[in-house]
């Protein structure tokens, strides 16, 4: 009995009364403190992530929390949920409701799913431009789980029993807020004179890249005669052979979803595909014409308004534009440059809120394995506020690209046209980080500063309107019914 009472007292920290969540509900006497919960939470679960785990986790959260605090992303999109709840919170705030005011001040979001699911919720929160954007904790239910790992939530699928969920909620209550940069990505290509209207089948594009709602003709980014896509990312954009392996994995999972119910099996299959696709033997199976330097002209902007060409070694087969120190299941391709590299090449440690992307190159999978060694890193190419890839007619008909774990096969020009991909800083969102967080903030006293980091080393002014562009995650964005949410895991 004492244990049940103790558990009940603990859960009171998270419970939100019904009248706060559901408009026009009667205010009821409840077991929520009169001053409001200490750590009110809303939980979003991709019930199709992690095989059976997503569904089991949904049941456990619903058993522990109040009604209307837990949402299945397969049933209701997060933009609809948050718009409704925040409208009600604002009305109650104007009426002087103390609990509603406390919930607005302290609300935290939990999202359970893969990196694609987490990115969806992050985009929604960013697009809604809430007066008090709530920080977000991520439950790792996917294969790579780079986002959860970067903020200390681990990369292994969690337990779904009540004790495991309570342990996670305890971490959420103790976690600290951390701002992170988010990035806008624009992709533009000429509308083909012949053939299909869409250069890429819509269902094969990442959901975060406006796969279903193109930029409208009235949009400032629209260009006559071109297909223009845009979206956002929080962790990385990559191109080349690493994205090719990811594409092969996703294609295989799409054909045989029944074989991908277990995280360990998924990771093993991923490794096997790396071998069969030639990533470990790239010099033999990957023609030089597919190397990044042959495919694209890359420009970077270190200072606002000043573009410069980025020199890429001819051997580089994969390029990663990285925001967080977590790639391919938690590896850090940038590492921490020593003081000589910082001085000679103007490099800095990888902070997640400094407005800079780290650009790293890899020759092949063996090169990638150096990340497993202490202080190992890829080929550091640059840090930049903006990056532009220009693809012209060349030796390859296509390449492979990936945003936060979601890959696609990108057609390249067959005539004198250009495919343009441009990445720019968009703003910041709030994440929740545990004491084991790998991500470091410029403003965090516990983060290594430029003058005291000492590790060994191997090897035009933009329009302010850019800051207020939407990713399309909310309102204009809807995942079609025919898309399996499991593909976001």
TrEMBL record:
Subunit structure and binding partners: Monomer.
Keyword Chaperone belongs to the record: no
Organism: Vigna radiata var. radiata
Chaperone is among the record's keywords: no
UniProt-listed Gene3D superfamilies: 2.60.200.40, Probable inorganic polyphosphate/atp-NAD kinase, domain 1
Keywords linked to the UniProt accession: ATP-binding, Kinase, Nucleotide-binding, Plant defense, Stress response, Transferase
The protein's name: Diacylglycerol kinase
Gene Ontology CC terms: membrane
Biased segments, Acidic residues type: 454-464
DAGKc domain mapped to chain residues: 36-189
Residue ranges, compositional bias (Basic and acidic residues): 435-453
Gene that produces this protein: LOC106772752
